[in-house]
Amino acid sequence: MKVIGITGGVGSGKTQILTYLQERTNCRIIVADRVAHELEEPGGACYEQIVTLLGEEILGKDGSIIKTEMASRIFSDSNLLIKINEIIHPAVKEYVRKAIAEECEKGQIDYLFIEAALLIEDGYDEIVDEMWYIHTDEPVRRERLKLSRGYSDKKIDAIIKEQLAEEEFYRHCCVVIDNSKALQNAFRQIDEKLGEDLCQKQ
């Protein structure tokens, strides 16, 4: 089983790439954001710590965390944001470590893909076999974000400013998939890469 990290800037088209990988390979896909949401649910590894930090006022009637309330608090207080990240990011990484161990023991899949926006920042290169960067030219990303999410230029500027520089992605990732054009072009690059793996197995 090969463990591959998938990363890229906002609007790079990672979701479509993951969908294609799911259809194309015998794999399991872990999306870090989804794991984080699970861990924030009642009974999850992060739930009690978050409630202790932010207070029970962020809870709904069913005891679950109101995500909009949580977001409004942490994004208006940089110190709270740091503390929340210190709770969630290590827990997600531990979840991924356990998932890798479980899948290795089962021996039923060929690939385990892990998608995380902070793949590089959180040191996932320590636990994956290789990292893939989904590159998309910035003008294309901007257009996609406007069309698909209705983001304003100001919001896009703020998001891109917070993300890693292009050089960092290239420095840490051994595979680059260019998704600046039609999706079929990106799919062809993926097929070529997967073909290399298949050839190496023979």
How would you characterize this protein structure?
- The chain has 202 residues and is α/β, with parallel strands linked by helices.
- The protein folds into 2 domains: 1-26 and 110-202, P-loop containing nucleotide triphosphate hydrolases (Rossmann fold), CATH 3.40.50.300; 35-107, 3-Layer(aba) Sandwich (Rossmann fold), CATH 3.40.50.300.
- The protein has 9 helices and 5 strands, in the order βαβααααββαααβα.
- The protein has a 5-stranded parallel β-sheet with strand order 2-3-1-4-5, sandwiched between helices.
- α2 (32-39) crosses α5 and α3 runs antiparallel to α5.
- It is globular and about 50 Å long.
- The protein starts with a strand and ends with a helix.
Cα Rg: 18 Å
**β content, as a range?**
5-15%
CATH architecture field of the largest domain:
3-Layer(aba) Sandwich
Strand order of the largest sheet: 2-3-1-4-5
Low-pLDDT parts are 198-202
Mean pLDDT: 92
Largest sheet: 5 strands, parallel
| Secondary-structure element string | EHEHHHHEEHHHEH
CATH class descriptor name of the largest domain: Alpha Beta
Q: Fraction of residues in helices?
A: 55-70%
Count of spatially separate domains: 2
Provide keyphrases for this structure.
single chain; 202 residues; alpha/beta; Rossmann fold; 2 domains; five-stranded parallel β-sheet; 9 helices; 5 strands; globular
